[in-house]
Specification:
10 helices; single chain; two-stranded antiparallel sheet; 299 residues; 8-stranded parallel beta barrel
Length: 299
Amino acid sequence: MLLDGETFVIRGVCWNPVPKGGHQNDALDFDGFVDLDAPLMAAAGINAVRTYTPIVEQRVLDVLYAHGIYVLNAAYTVGGDPVSAVDARVAAVKDHPAVAGWVVGNEWNYNNLYSGLSPSAARNRVEEVAARLQTLDERPVITIYGEVPEPSVVAAIPSADVWGLNIYAGLGLNGAFNRWGSMSGKPMFLGEYGADAYDAGIPGPNLAAQATATRVLTELIFDNLVTDGGVGSGGTIFEWADEWWKDESGSLNVHDTSGIAPGGGPHPDATFNEEWWGIVDIDRVPRPAYDALKSVYAP
């Protein structure tokens, strides 16, 4: 992946700042958190954030850019939006140097663009949106897939310049680099990886296990960088800060602990405790996972 003509290694994090008592649908607040988050991110060596909702505020991009942080900016996530919705999103910030690429979908093979589309319709929509983005701006178009796609899927979306892969497989990445390298010459990175800070096997917080997963997986990603003869362009760990809205059976004002174990998942319990994924907590207190990430990003 290139940025200003040079190879860009993504030392990234997924960023979706929602305060206590708020919900993604009405309280997502890039502008309210950027002044607090950006310097803390920069101190850990983070140079990129990936979003799930478009950042269209120039001030937010100004602050990130001042701290050396680029944005893999969500352009299209929900299939209920018309393809033309990307026009205004791109136009709002296309002249800002902090934007490193446009993201289409988030593991859309699992959720079909959150809109009830059939799998084939979701795949076709991703290509249609990616093709439109190619006409709007010269920056890379990125699509985010769950696990490693089949070659037929990659072939069906020629307008995607870069692929991000979301993988949760304990302390490994399911051979993602070898599998991708044998299939495609396009850039790839880990769009999501990591572990939450709650251990259903205790049950209770397990900050040490989250830190271990953060270090081991990030080192694995950096052992396979394209700059060292591999095929990877880095990663965006999931995630920056806890989000207390994600347990639909819980309270927006409570740090809920329920989770699911779908047969594979994060270290050590293979259980996705949705409100515990931050490398900093919701009050921006760093966890040991923050230091583990920093040890790889900014040794």
